[in-house]
Design goal:
The complex is a heterodimer of chains A (265) and B (303). Chain A has 265 residues and is mostly helical. Chain A has eleven helices and no strands. In chain A, helix 3 crosses helix 8, helix 7 packs antiparallel against helix 8 and helix 10 runs antiparallel to helix 11. Chain B is mostly helical. Chain B has a two-stranded antiparallel ribbon. Classes of the chains: A mainly alpha (265), B mainly alpha (303). Chains A and B meet through helix 1, helix 3, helix 4, helix 5 and helix 6 of A and helix 2, helix 3, helix 5, helix 6 and helix 7 of B.
């Protein structure tokens, strides 16, 4: 179909675009080993010193712990709400179905700043002071979609008749769930949960509006970059953040290879 | 044998009758499944959007700094009449559009190669190479560019190595354009890939059999069929750029403010929530129009 020259051209363009995607990531990973406190390129001498510094830093520790807590709670909420909604949407036809699926998509279709501003106005209205829960609510609103999309993609690929068959064979609702539905959705649910965690763990826009004076790990990184402080420690933290978000994503990708659920954020 | 013993137990009977009860009343199941998610979203999310909208009509007492709950279009008229806001809005939309076009051009050859030329092995590899940047922290990737574009960064090092002079890109609108195009590129690649993969090979063969050359096949067969994917990707690139304030803050210069920066400053520093809320309605309106057009172009099926 494509001529030889065209194939070659497309291959070359692909290589260039992939290089464009990856070179900055490799460079930022390299900076974590920079022996100098000045952030210049090429880096002068290699060291592991900053990983130790970051590890013993009180602020890094407390913000990491806060981010992990928020990520876990938001993921749990998202798994619960996202799964329930995906079952209702995929298995039943009812008035307002389209509207509800649109409502769930809204937090990622609208710019993050809108979600953040809207939530902070809401807290203001309701007189709710900033706490870990105000951040969790913010994160959960956009994490629900990820779980919802994953589970929905899996359910669309399974025939609803397996549930009928299970009932016909005398299983009650719980048994049908435990032995028929659960094995079908479990990997998609776990994948959705991992992605939701990855999303929450490095979210910064909604968080700046819902955190008040609290410092999550991304906020720690952002404020230090802006002030140009502790950059060597930031580089080590950044290295860890990249590695920590890559792992859940790779696992999630393996779990959902058939349904390609990662393509829809 | 446990199964049989269980079959006669009263507990099992109760469970079966509950199951039958629910099976006959599907609306009850829908209600039970949707109660929590809909309640949470309707109250918290829609409630928040409503709060945002309402507060955009309020104002701040310049003397006490407190929000005054009286209705007026004052904020909107400030935004329309003060040229600085017009300039910022125009800059935001213009860069979002430029980023979208850039990403479409960069994504297309990669997506085409993945969908139609790569062997299954290469395709799987490319897929991971596109997905990992998508999911890795976007804050970190912007920071990477801040270091790369710096005076003593990797870009100038590479240019000097080639015998070229320094590129003074740090803290400019060009830097923002590059960085935005960089961070949102995977969002464009994936839907375009999905759209291209769905084109049957026979369409291309038919086009060639009918005498169309490569360019013509591209223009009249491939491009129209890839359009929904391009539009779907553009929803992300456009919307994400429109609402961002981190990239302008980290790699933009003195004249690089976005709508997001103004909103962020008014909320965080000057505490003028009503004016921020009024300005934040602009991206919402722009996105609403954009989504309606995208739906017409069939982008929602390609998401």
């Amino acid at each position: 179909m494509e001529t030889r020259a065209l194939r070659f051209g497309l291959g070359a363009a692909t290589t260039l675009v992939v290089a464009f995607l990856w070179i900055p990531i490799l460079i930022i990973l390299a900076y974590a080993f920079n022996g100098s406190v000045l952030q210049t390129w090429p880096i002068q001498n290699l060291t592991l010193h900053w990983f130790h510094e970051a590890w013993v830093d009180e602020e890094v520790r407390s913000s990491l712990w806060l981010s992990v807590k928020i990520g876990l709670i938001a993921t749990l909420v998202a798994m619960l709400l996202g799964t329930a909604a995906s079952f209702a949407i995929s298995r039943f036809k009812f008035f307002g179905r389209e509207g509800i699926s649109f409502l769930l998509l809204l937090p990622i279709a609208l710019p993050g700043i809108i979600t953040g501003m809207a939530l902070s106005s809401f807290y203001n209205f309701a007189g709710i002071g900033f706490s870990i829960w105000t951040i969790v609510i913010g994160h959960a609103t956009f994490c629900v979609v990820v779980v919802y999309n994953n589970v929905l993609a899996r359910l669309r690929r399974t025939s609803p008749s397996i549930v009928e068959a299970s009932m016909d064979l005398g299983a009650d609702g719980w048994q049908t769930f435990r032995f028929v539905i659960w094995p079908v959705i479990s990997t998609a649910l776990v994948a959705g949960g991992l992605l939701a965690f990855a999303l929450s763990f490095d979210e910064v826009i909604v968080t700046t509006f819902t955190a008040g004076a609290q410092t999550t790990l991304p906020i720690f990184i952002l404020s230090n970059i802006q002030r140009g402080q502790q950059l060597p420690i930031v580089n080590a933290v950044v290295f860890a953040v990249i590695v920590l978000t890559v792992i859940p994503v790779v696992i999630a990708q393996r779990l959902t290879r058939d349904s390609g659920a990662l393509t829809g954020r | 044998m446990a199964e049989i013993a269980e079959a006669g137990s009263p507990l099992r009977g109760a469970r079966l009758s509950i199951s039958a009860f629910l099976w006959q009343r599907p609306w009850l199941k829908v209600a039970a499944l949707l109660a929590l998610p809909v309640l949470a979203f309707a109250v918290v999310y829609l409630g928040s959007l409503a709060a945002l909208f309402v507060s955009s009509f309020w104002s701040v007492d310049s003397f006490t700094g407190k929000v005054v709950h009286s209705w007026s279009f004052g904020n909107f008229s400030t935004l329309i009449h003060d040229p600085i806001y017009r300039k910022i809005a125009f800059r935001t939309i213009w860069i979002a559009a430029a980023v979208t076009v850039t990403d479409a051009i960069l994504a297309f050859p990669l997506a085409y190669f993945m969908a139609r030329l790569a062997t299954p092995r290469t395709r799987a590899l490319l897929f991971v190479l596109v997905l990992l940047p998508l999911w890795s922290s976007y804050l970190v990737r912007i920071y990477a560019w801040r270091l790369i574009l710096a005076k003593q960064g990797a870009l100038n090092w590479a240019l000097n190595g080639l015998g070229l002079p320094d590129a003074n890109l740090a803290y400019t609108n060009t830097a923002m354009w590059i960085v935005f195009s960089y961070v949102w590129l995977p969002f464009m690649v994936l839907p375009v890939y999905a759209a291209l993969e769905r084109i049957p090979q026979s369409y291309l063969e038919a086009s060639q059999d009918l005498g169309a050359r490569t360019w013509r096949t591209f223009r009249t067969v491939i491009l129209p069929l890839a359009l929904p994917g391009l539009v779907a990707g553009s929803i992300f690139t456009f919307s994400l750029t429109l609402g961002d304030f981190i990239t302008p803050a980290l790699v933009g210069g003195a004249d690089s403010q976005f709508i997001g920066n103004v909103v962020h400053n008014y909320v965080g520093i000057s505490n003028n929530v009503p004016l921020a809320a009024a300005f934040a309605t602009l991206p919402v309106i722009v996105m609403a129009v954009y989504l309606v057009v995208a739906k017409r172009l069939g982008a929602f099926e390609a998401l």
